[in-house]
# Entry
Amino acid sequence: MDTKPLTIDGFLYTVPAPGDDPGTARFQLVVSPTDDATDDVVWPCTTNDPRIAYALLTEIQAGDLLHVSGFLSQLDDPAQPARLTVDDLEVLAPAPVRALQEMVLDRYGDYVVVFDADTQAVPVFTAGGQWVGMAESPDAIGTLIEIHEQANGSDG
# Structure
């Protein structure tokens, strides 16, 4: 098994789950190496640190922007995905909307949108949590992002 130290920033993709042993947790991070959503990578992660596991299972929510450090392990079987074992975690930014009961977060490059089954309107934020605007419908998201980038530059 090959291991390498790694530090990355990514969005918590799914609700963390308890690990196989007490004081452990499993979770996934979405990491965006470029501005193109098609380049997003989902990293499977685990932690054996009980403090981090507790925070993941009780405080941190899907969509939070995290800064994690640990060791990337690639098993001898190349068909198995590499896994990051996290030994340090920091929340860089909470999810733009904390009450996500009937809502779905989605990424558009450097932007996060919140779909709500009860309305056609779609709130749009930058990945850093800055308010962009309200798209009248899902079809208007691209136009809203283009207008924001023209007014503010592509960095949001």
User: Anything to note?
Assistant: Residues 135 and 141 are 5 Å apart (CA to CA). The chain has a mean pLDDT of 85.
